[in-house]
Structure formats: C-alpha cells, structure tokens
Amino acid sequence: MGDVEVPKQFLEVAGKPIIILAIEAFQKNENIDKIIVVTLSEWIEQTWNFIRQYGLDKVEDVVEGGETGQLSIFNGVKRALELYGRDNIILINDGVRPFISSDDIEKSIEVVKEVGASAVAVQATETVAKKEGDSIDKILNRDECVFLKAPQSFYLGEFYDCDSKAVSEGRVNFVDSASLMSYYGKKIGLVETSYDNIKITTKKDIIVAEAISKRISHT
Questions:
Q1: Number of domains making up the chain
Q2: The model's pTM
C-alpha cells in the first residue's frame, strides 16, 4: 500500500474502515452465528471501538495476530475452537476483502457440507504461466485455471488439526488456507464468486473499491 498512516484494513472505503465492511458481510448473514476478528495487537482496542460503533454484535472476540498470515489465522481458529467446538463450519476471510456477498457465504457453507471444504474462486481471465527463474517454464491452459479468493471454508476441527500439524512442522507461510489444506491432501470444492470480490492490496485497489461500492449501492 506504500506510505499510509494506518494498516490498510483500517483505511476507509465508502466512509467506513475496510475491515468493518468485511465484518458486516458476515454480520448481516443469518447463517453466521459468531465472528472472531484477528488483528494487530496495537489495533485491538480500536477494532473493538469500531465494532461497538457499527453495532457488530456477532463479534465474539478480537485476538492478536501472528508473525505470518497463516499464524494469524491459526490464532483465530484456536480461539474459535475453544469457544465453539470441532464440528462447526468456519469461514476464513481477509480483513481487506470487503465485497463478500450473501450468496458467497451460503454456497460456501453448502459445499463444505457436501465436500468437506470450499473456496470461492473466479475463472482466470489472463494467460497463466509457470516460471523458472526469469523465464517462462510452461504456459497453463487458462480454461483449467481459477483465481482463488475468500472466504475459504472448512470444518473447524479438521482445519485446526491440519494447521497445528503445519505449525509443528515449521510450515507457517502457506499463502492461504486452501493451499494449506490442499498440501495435506484435502479435497476443496469451488464456489464461483464475483470479480467484485477483490482483495485490497494497493492504492489503485482503493479507487476500484470505491467504484464497486458506488455501483453496488445503486443496484
């Protein structure tokens, strides 16, 4: 994100912190019972302030993140396991992914019940290549490729077991939860999502997010 004064999840889109927009998507869905938020230790108090300000009463706890994204997820999942038990379904989302639809949430849960795990995705729209050093090693068939997004959803106990195993083996840098579960042999069902389901990473993404928000608010 470059030179910004606050972590990117606390930047505003449509007049609200991005993380609040992400939480609201789950707050508003009747299939979601409780929410655990993971954030930077120095931002926990402010996160609670925002949660109270916007009336997000499904948020059960705000816990401190870890040194990597995977370890942050592990902290949140561990807390969820303490509170809710192994047999519940957990949906893991990014704090900078504000445009999750109710359809994404509902289909994610359905596919977990059918397959055991799910990840939302969009069809690849550009050529995808495997590289080796500074050269292209192989051009992949775009029709067979998707871009994985979030939420990525699992049975809580099963995900915790795999993440615990990964941590014990020193594997703490999986790029996302689907990658972790796939590494340990878990089949993951795909849920088609919208291209609006962006992850805000750069300043350009803020501009795109504002445009998406305006369009959504007028539909």
A1: 1
A2: 0.94
Q: Is residue 151 within 8 Å of 104, Cβ to Cβ?
A: yes
State the amino acid at position 78 in one-letter form. Answer: K
Q: What is the spatial distance between Cα 78 and Cα 62, in angstroms, rounded to a whole number? A: 12
Does any domain span residue 160? Answer: yes
DSSP string, 152-193: EEEEHHHHHHHHHHHHHTT----SSHHHHHHHTT---EEEE-
| CATH code of residue 209 | 3.90.550.10
In a domain, 2, yes or no: no
Q: What does 56-105 look like in DSSP terms, one character per residue?
A: -TTEEEEEE--SSHHHHHHHHHHHHHHHH-TTSEEEE--TT-----HHHH
pLDDT in tens, 132-170: 999 999 999 999 999 999 999 999 999 999 999 999 999
Q: Is residue 1 part of a domain?
A: no
